Amino acid sequence: xxxxxxxxxxxxxxxxxxxxxxxLILSVKNQDYPNxxxxxxxxxxxxxNATVGILKKYHHLRWWTRPNQGxxxxxxxxxxxxxxxxxxxxxxxxxxxxxxxxxxxxxLLSHPAFHGVFGRTGYMNEKKxxxxxxxxxxxxxxxxxxxxxxxxHCSFYVRRDSLEQSNLYFDxxxxxxxxxxxxxxxxxxxxxxxxxxxxxxxVRIHSAQATQRYASSSLQELQGVYKKHRVNIVxxxxxxxxxxxxxxxxxIGQIYKADGIDGLLHHMGRFLQKIMPx
Length: 278
Prior knowledge:
Elements: E1 8-14, H1 21-29, E2 36-42, H2 50-57, E3 62-65, H3 71-81, E4 86-89, E5 95-96, H4 100-110, E6 116-124, E7 130-132, H5 145-148, E8 156-159, H6 160-165, H7 178-187, E9 193-204, H8 210-213, H9 215-229, H10 233-275
Parallel strand pairs: 1-2, 1-4, 2-3, 6-9
Antiparallel strand pairs: 4-8, 5-9, 6-7, 6-8
C-alpha cells in the first residue's frame, strides 16, 4: 500500500491497436511512480483478437472489451470506472515518457490550489523516431487552448473530482475532435490549470490516425466546434498557419543538419517533382 501517494488513473481507449499498444503499456508499467492504475477499454476491436491478446498478457491492467461505441464514449467509460485522484488520457499509439507521472504528481502535491497541470509533448513517427522536438506554443497558458490546441491530453493530469463535479465528460457525438472540444470546456471553468516545462509524453504521427484518414470530416466537425464555442476563426487560422510554417522550417533545418546541402537539394528536388505538371 502506497500510503499518502495519490492513485493516478491512466485511461486508454483502443480499437484495433495491436501495432502500438504494447509500447504504451510498457511506458506506463515502467514509470517510477508506484501508485498507478492503467485502465484500457477495448472498443470492440475486430482484428482477430490481436489487440485483446496483448491486453491478456499484462495482468496489472484493468481492462475490458465491449461493442464499438466510438473513442469518446470509450474515454467516458474509463473515466467513470477510474478510482484515481488524478487522471490522464493516453491514446493507444502514444507513450508516456520516463518519470512523467511522478513529476505531475509532485507538482500537484506542491500546488494544491491547482486542479490540473500540463507539460510539454514530443512527437514521433511509426518507428518512434523523433519528428519534432519543439512544437510552437507549448508554453502558452491553458486559457488559450481554444485557439492554439497546444495541450495533448496525454500530457495533461487533472483531478478527477474536478471533472466529475463540473460534468466534464467527453461529447460522444463527436468522432475526431472531442478531446479539443473537451479542453475548451475545461478552459471555461473556474479551474486553475498550471504548466510545467517537463516533456511528459510523445504523440505518434502516422497515416492510420483518424484525423489524417478522414481529414475532410474532421475539418467539418472542427468547424462545428468553433461555432458552438464561439472560437474566433481568424485567430484560430492564424495560429494554424504559424504551426504549419514553423514545422516546415523546422523540417528543412533538420534535413540540412542531418544530410547537409546535398540532402537539402535532394529534398527540394523531390518536392518539385511532386508539384510540377507532368
